[in-house]
Amino acid sequence: MAVITTEAAAATKVRPRKSRTLLMLNIGSVVAGLAIWWGLSLAGLQFPTPGEVVAAAWRMLLDGTLVTDVGASLGRVLAGFALGSVAAVLIGFLMGWYTIARGLFEPWIQFFRTVPPLAMLPLVLVLMGIGESPKIFVIFLAAFLACVISTYQGVVNVDRTLVNAARVLGAGDGTIFARVVVPASTPFILVGMRVGLGSAWGTLVAAELLAAQAGLGHRMQNAQLYYDLPTIFVGIITIGILGLIMDRLLMLAGNKLTAWQESR
Known about the structure:
Layout: H1 2-42, H2 50-63, H3 65-97, H4 99-113, H5 121-128, H6 132-156, H7 160-168, H8 173-208, H9 216-225, H10 229-257
């Protein structure tokens, strides 16, 4: 018992040190990236300087366009990503747990996985019009297809020894599913959700290029027409920051939900 306590204390001391090291490396990487960007812009490449991008962002904040665009894009991503993740988890669990569901859903999922969601956009626009529904739908499709396979793999990869042990102890299917399958599949689900989040943001920009009245992709398209590079950079950086924040929130949630799992 004393040996275990000593090892646990040592691990507790190592984690903050590792976190500080990672934070310093993150900060150093960002500073180096900004320095390279500034150097490229000063070297004659057609890059706006960081100062010009900050000035453009401040101007867009003052006139309200940046807030409006962020609100529109964030709302579409959150709606499509949430719907896609929920549907992916439900169908992924069904496919992994029930052979009938796997036989019914798998051919269609594998088929649509080979078709980029953006390839569906012209058809979706024709069927749904030019409102918010087609944009949210293609984001939903991108998030769903990225997450459903990961969830399915999480279920089928559950250690059969754990399932058999639970059955020996008298647990029914419902208890096994809730107490064994769901916890064991959670890391796979979170990885799929993080991939789905990136797909959702990537799909959003292209979806907003068509028939959008507001949004970061819409603003970047308009800036392209006038060769307004600082505004394009503002859109790219804003999307990157929003995506990074959402990804880190998913990581924090994952760390809480999988605290029992050993990590490096």
